[in-house]
C-alpha cells in the first residue's frame, strides 16, 4: 500500500495491439474517471517481443520492453488487465506478456507473485469476455498473483453505437469506478504493511 496521502498506483495494460482497441480505451476511460486518490497508468505492450528462452538468456532476463513493463509493475500497488476474447480464449499477445512476466527478473524476481491484480474485458460480442477472463485468472493463479475474485466486469456490445461514437456509455464508466473502489479495498486487504502485518484497507 502507498504511504498515507499518496495516491494508489495501478498499472494497466490491455491484451490488444489494435490502434482503436476497445480494451485499451476501456483502460483510458478508467484512468480518466478513476475515483480520487487512484492513479491509473496505462502501459503499452507493443514493445514486448514473442517469448523465447534464448532471448531471455541472451538478454539476462528479457529485452528492454520486458524490463520496462516489469519495472512499471514492480512500482505499482496493483495491476489492472483488460482482455479481449479471441476464439473463446485470451489473445496470444496477452498470454505472451504473461509468460514473460511469470519469469524471474534479475532485479524484481517474479513481479506478479504476491501482486494484487484485477481483470476486466470488453467485446462487441454478447458474452463480455467471460471465457477469456477465466483463462487470464487461471494463468495468474499459476504465477501466485493475488487476483480479485469479485466484482467481475464483463463489457458486452462495445462499439455498438457505431465506429465514430464513444464505445462505452456512462453506465460503464460508473461500473469501472465501482470496480476500482473494490480493487482499492482488495489491495488494502492483501498487501503486507512494511512491518509484515496486513495493511488495513484505506477508505
Ligand atoms: C481472431 C478473433 C477471434 C475472436 N473471437 C471472439 C470471441 O470468441 N468472443 C468475442 O466476444 N469476440 C471475439 N472476437 C471479436 C473481438 O472481441 C473484437 O475484435 C474486439 O474488438 C477485440 O478487442 P480490442 O478491441 O481490444 O482489440 C474475435 C476477434 C478476432 C480477431
> How many β-strands, per DSSP?
6
H-E order: EHEHHEHEHEEH
Alpha-beta classification: alpha/beta
Strand residue content: 5-15%
Please report the number of helical segments: 6
Bound ligands, each once? flavin mononucleotide
In terms of per-residue confidence, which ranges show pLDDT below 50 for 5 or more consecutive residues? none
Can you give a write-up of this model?
This protein has 203 residues and is an alpha/beta fold. It has one domain: 3-Layer(aba) Sandwich (Rossmann fold), CATH 3.40.50.360. Helices cover 36% and strands 15% of the residues. It is built from six helices and six strands, in the order E-H-E-H-H-E-H-E-H-E-E-H. Strands 1, 2, 3, 4, 5 and 6 form a six-stranded parallel sheet that branches. Strand 3, helix 4 and strand 4 form a beta-alpha-beta unit. The longest helix is centred in the C-terminal third of the chain and has 21 residues. It binds flavin mononucleotide (FMN). The site of flavin mononucleotide has 15 residues, from helix 1.
Q: What are the defining features of this structure?
A:
203 residues; Rossmann fold; six-stranded parallel β-sheet; 6 strands; binds flavin mononucleotide; 6 helices; alpha/beta; globular; 36% helix
What would a concise description of this structure say?
With 203 residues, the chain is an alpha/beta fold.
Helix and strand topology:
Layout: E1 8-14, H1 22-33, E2 38-43, H2 53-58, H3 64-74, E3 78-82, H4 92-101, E4 116-122, H5 130-142, E5 146-147, E6 153-155, H6 170-190
Parallel strand pairs: 1-2, 1-3, 3-4, 4-5, 4-6
The structure holds flavin mononucleotide.
Flavin mononucleotide (FMN) binds at residues 14, 16, 18, 21-23, 84-88, 123-125, 127.
Amino acid at each position: 500500500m502507498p504511504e498515507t496521502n499518496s495516491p494508489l498506483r495501478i498499472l494497466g495494460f490491455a491484451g490488444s495491439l489494435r490502434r482503436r482497441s476497445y480494451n485499451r480505451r476501456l483502460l483510458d476511460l478508467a484512468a480518466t474517471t478513476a475515483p480520487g486518490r487512484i492513479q491509473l497508468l496505462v502501459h503499452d505492450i507493443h514493445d514486448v517481443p514473442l517469448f523465447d528462452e534464448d532471448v531471455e538468456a541472451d538478454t539476462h532476463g528479457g529485452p528492454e520492453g520486458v524490463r520496462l513493463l516489469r519495472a512499471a509493475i514492480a512500482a505499482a500497488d496493483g495491476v489492472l488487465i483488460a482482455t479481449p476474447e479471441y476464439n473463446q480464449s485470451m489473445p496470444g499477445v496477452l498470454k505472451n506478456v504473461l509468460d514473460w512476466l511469470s519469469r524471474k527478473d534479475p532485479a524484481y524476481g517474479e513481479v506478479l507473485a504476491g501482486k494484487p491484480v484485477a481483470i476486466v474485458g470488453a467485446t462487441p460480442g454478447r458474452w463480455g469476455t467471460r471465457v477469456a477472463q477465466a483463462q487470464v485468472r487461471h494463468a495468474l493463479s499459476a504465477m501466485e498473483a493475488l487476483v480479485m475474485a469479485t466484482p467481475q466486469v464483463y463489457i458486452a456490445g462495445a462499439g455498438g453505437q457505431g465506429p465514430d461514437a464513444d464505445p462505452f456509455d456512462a453506465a460503464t464508466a460508473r461500473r469501472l469506478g465501482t470496480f476500482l473502489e473494490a480493487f482499492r479495498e482488495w489491495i488494502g486487504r492483501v498487501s503486507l504493511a512494511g512491518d509484515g502485518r496486513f495493511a488495513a484497507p484505506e477508505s
